Amino acid sequence: MSTTETPVLRSFEIKKDIFIAASPEIAFQAILEELGPGSVMPDGKPFPMKIEPWPGGRWYRDLGETGGYAYGHLWGHVQVIKAPTLLELTGPMPMSFPAINHVQYRLKAEDNGTRLLFAHRAMGPLPEDLQAGMDKGWGHAVGRIKQVAEAKTAK
Amino acid sequence: MPRSPTTADAFTAIAETRRREILGLLAEADNGDDICQRDVSWLVEKLGWPQPQVSKHLRVLLKVGLVTVERKGKHRMYRMNGIKLRPVFDWVKSYERFWEHQLLRIKDRAEKLQREADIKNQSYKKEPS
Fold it and tell me: Which residue has the higher pLDDT, A154 or B99?
């Protein structure tokens, strides 16, 4: 048996608000496709996932089999699905350490389209690779938080 | 595992939306000279919140080192301390980039599907009954 010092939990929240010139039904369909086979990384690399669109359904990477052994990575489960207005996912996401994530897509019909309110809330210990660099300066932080504040002010 | 108090470090302190708003304003004002220092009255005016609320959040930010303070006459002048934010944003930024990219793709995909559906509906209407 081993013991460790109790780690401090960290948390963050990312919120986004976008307008889509499409009906909520079509926007919801697009969300499921982008969470599933249409998933692409920011660098443009295809990153196909699978999502089972029902309560408890899995959201995961299916990497097939190697030498008769299954390969894959569970990102989360469907916590709530109320098409076409709400989708909530919960799980570890790509964090390979004890973390809790909650992702929410909320859709509201507006004139000529849909308002998509997105939120990702996470809680867990700070990843070790980031702890190693905590004492270094980081000028980008100022720019980033300025953007966040400006976005909030604009609303 | 106990949740850490808001004053434990920069990370937990910044998890609160209103404290991020205060930091955003101080960051916006920060051009490297003395003008970037702001007092509580300036923040109260910009944010429209009661002064005790602004002061309470400033105390938390000060305690974890996210802002510094300097006394000038009767005023306590606050300034953002950007270096302390690094552990927060290093973790968040990769996710933020991922979601921003995904949401733009959702928007593009949905709007393309909507255009296709509209064209299809129009062609149905044009067909003689």
Answer: B99
Cα–Cα distance, A24 to A8 (Å, whole number): 40
pTM for the full model? Answer: 0.67
* Assembly ipTM: 0.79
CA distance B59 to chain A (A): 19
The answer on pLDDT for B41 being more than 60 is yes
Q: Which of A3, A5, A8 is the best residue to mutate to test the B interface, defined by the most B CB atoms within 10 Å of its own CB?
A: A8
Q: Which domains does chain A have, with CATH numbers?
A: 9-127 (3.30.530.20)
Contact check, Cβ <8 Å, B24/A140: no
A59-79 pLDDT tens trace = 999 998 888 898 999 999 999
Q: Provide DSSP, A115-139.
A: EEEEEEEEEEEPPHHHHTTTTS--T
pLDDT band at A133 (very low <50, low <70, confident <90, very high): very low
Cβ neighbors of A91 (< 8 A, separation 6 or more) are A59, A74, A75, A76, A77, A101
Q: Which residues contact A105 (CB under 8 A, 6 or more apart)?
A: A31, A86, A87, A88, A116, A117, A118
User: Chain A interface, mutation test: which of B9, B64, B106, most A Cβ atoms within 10 Å?
Assistant: B106
